[in-house]
Amino acid sequence: MFAAENGLKGDPRLEAISAAIRVVPNFPKKGIMFQDITTLLLDHKAFKHTIDIFVDRYKDMQISVVAGVEARGFMFGPSIALAIGAKFVPLRKPGKLPGKVISESYELEYGHDRLEMHVDAVEPLERVIIIDDLVATGGTLSAAISLIESQGAEVVECACVIGLPEVKGQHKLKGKPLYVLVEPSGLDEFC
User: Fold this and answer.
1) Which of 109, 114, 123, 166 is the catalytic position?
2) Suppose 157 and one of 16, 21, 80, 177 were both cysteines; which one would form an S-S bond, judging by CB atoms 3.0 to 4.6 Å apart?
């Protein structure tokens, strides 16, 4: 669900977050309207609003793990984890983690990739949220859910800063709730 549909409609923090995200046309390839969150990170107020909204949502849900999807999930996940008293688990691209890992392949809107996680990163029955910057098709988050659940942990929810309007049905998230702060901005300017 989108934050505006869940009690935050008209919240000026959402407008500030949306305004701080830059759209880069034709990146990483022609036809992709890349939502660049690096400009959000440069705006300390909008970045704080982003973290605060997620922390307010998860602080009373007994979350023990925040799993961040490489690489932009790493920018939000550790701050959220610290604020709610949870551990942070990185979900990495292939070959980036030492030791024994498990992996899951998935499709992107512009290619294929794989996520890896240490086999001992989560424990059975731990309550997990998965964080990433953007959800387009749900493939990356579905791979993350598979990795975490393969170890017996419970994925409580997936959270993203940006979500395409098409994901409102959550059809590729294996039945897990999806919480999104804003829809992409500036797409009409480049169409």
Assistant:
1) 109
2) 177
Residues present in the chain in total = 191
- The reply to whether 109 belongs to the active site is yes
**Is 157 noted as a catalytic residue in this protein?**
no
In whole angstroms, give the CA distance from residue 93 to residue 140.
11
Give 11-34 pLDDT, tens digit per residue.
Answer: 999 999 999 999 999 998 888 888
CB 115 within 8 A of CB 89: no
The pTM for the full model equals 0.92
Do residues 130 and 159 make contact, with C-beta atoms less than 8 angstroms apart? yes
- Tens of pLDDT, residues 103-128: 999 887 667 899 999 999 999 999 99
Distance CA 85, CA 82 (A): 5
